[in-house]
Amino acid sequence: MATTSGRPGIFAVRDVRSLITETAEEGHGLKKAVGATQLTAMGVGAIIGTGIFVVIGEGAGIAGPAVILSFVLAAVACTFSALSYAELASSIPVSGSAYTYTYATLGELVAWIIGWDLILEYGVSVAAIAVGWGGNLNAFLDAAFGVALPDAIAKSPEDGGIFNLPAVFVVLAITFLLIRGVTESARVNLVMVVIKLAVLLFFIVVAFANFGTGNFQPFAPEGVDGVTAAAAVIFFAYIGFDAVSTGSEEAKRPERDLPLAIIGSLIICTIFYVATATGALGIASPQQMEGSDAPLAAALDQGAGISWAAAVLALGAVVAITSVVLVIMYGQTRIFFAMCRDGLLPQRLAQVNQRYGTPARLTLVLGVLIAILAALVPLSEIVKLVNIGTLFAFVLVNIGVIVLRRTRPEMPRPYRVPWSPVLPLLGIAFAIYLMTDLPWDTWVRFVVWLAIGMIIYWLYGYKNSRLRREQSSTPNWAREHDPQRPEDGDPS
Questions:
Q1: Which pLDDT band, with edges at 50, 70 and 90, does 12 fall under?
Q2: What subcellular locations does the record give (predicted)?
């Protein structure tokens, strides 16, 4: 796909050494400030949100008590992709997550597609989660104090309000925290993670203190089909571990910290999820949880007789969702930052603030746009794009591990996926299986979004790509005789 002038084609790949070198550039390098504990907390912060507080009821309604197995199955499905993320994050400690890994393995066009996909996935996700935060804040105020914000300023026009003020507030608050610095953001997230784990631990202790086995019969009323169907729903309660990899460039010891954080956060969340599901079924029937918007609070109220539990669980949900907004929005800014630094989007937005060590201008722009989205735009349908976007990223990351093992076998890999390519192939299979279960209209919207992205790429990204500019300014004879030149020609 290379042109006659020697310009790299659309499938040219970035050399890993070049990507890592760019992280030390003045004005474009992020500060290395977070360790394994903070990165693990970021993973837990992104994963544990409304999923466990809400989706457990839906899963129990599908699989019955066997929903416990559904939680385990969903965790296994995520593990294959998590291992691939761990290998690439430790080998390519550069911001951008799946976008950067794809650029280094499958080429610029595919990287643009996944980057454009992730912009939508993370942006819509943050806006939707912020709307959910406002709803849970009202639930907490009502449960604890008997008051609630009026619908006019607590709901979007889609839901009968005028302006969703709580959603705007939480997005802008998180925006300024992220501008302030990654260290400060990681510390605040760690505190919130401790609080929400404490709330779940409170639920588990109370549930097991009042535990009974009557609700476990029959264990799997819908058989294996029920377990797998519930796992497809519950899978999305685990999404978020991939956000850890967006912090690659800011990790103090990425070769060690990133694999620990990605895999560790998934293990911690699985343990809490299984214990929570088991405890809930020990005090409430699947039907009781399925019929409630707050299944854990309903289980404590009806099963353990603790009527004030709703306030505790509502507080836990507010803190949990705040933490998710923080980590997912952090991931959004780092992916956008990587694309800007590569020239596929305006490069001036990749400027790092010298005082805070963060891409402050870019973070502010994204924060304002997401706040407007959360306040006014109907999200009920486009939020489904989060699921397909995430699964698409999982597919490409697993492919990236297989490709990089063949094209760069000598590259240092502090962590290696065991039994490759078998486990990455299983990760691809699970992701594709879950993608096929998504509604047809979600696929249509996804294709339309990618088509818009392709237009932007041809009009701006292709012409301004840093890779293309740098190689075009280097004479052909110099590239041919440079023993250190990146191997980024077009494979076709």
A1: confident
A2: Membrane
- Name the token pair of 256: 């060690």
Q: Does some domain include residue 298?
A: yes
Structure tokens at 105: 């393995």
Q: What does DSSP assign to residue 1?
A: -
What is the structure's pLDDT at 484?
A: 41
| Per-residue tokens: 141 | 């105020």
Query: How many domains are there within the chain?
Result: 1
Cis upstream peptide for 157 (omega within 30°) = no
398-402 long-range contacts (CB < 8 A, ≥24 apart) are 398/80, 398/81, 398/84, 398/424, 398/425, 398/427, 398/428, 398/431, 399/105, 399/106, 399/424, 399/428, 400/84, 400/88, 400/98, 400/101, 400/102, 400/104, 400/105, 400/106, 401/84, 401/87, 401/88
Looking up residue 152, the CATH number of its domain turns out to be 1.20.1740.10
Task: Give the mean pLDDT of 436-440.
Answer: 79
Is residue 179 in some structural domain? yes
- Does residue 487 form part of some domain? no
CA atoms of 105 and 404, how far apart (whole Å): 6
Q: Single out the residue of 181, 167, 200, 342 nearest to residue 273, CA to CA.
A: 200
Question: Quick one: residue 160, left, alpha or beta (phi over 0 = left, psi -120 to 50 = alpha)?
Answer: left
pLDDT the model gives residue 7: 59
pLDDT in tens, 158-189: 777 788 899 999 999 999 999 998 889 999 99
Could you tell me the pTM of the whole model?
0.86
User: How would residue 381 be classed by pLDDT, with cut points 50, 70 and 90?
Assistant: low
Amino acid at 89: A
Domain annotation covers residue 7 = no
Domain, as residue range, for 239: 16-480
Query: Token match 């400690």: residue?
Result: 93
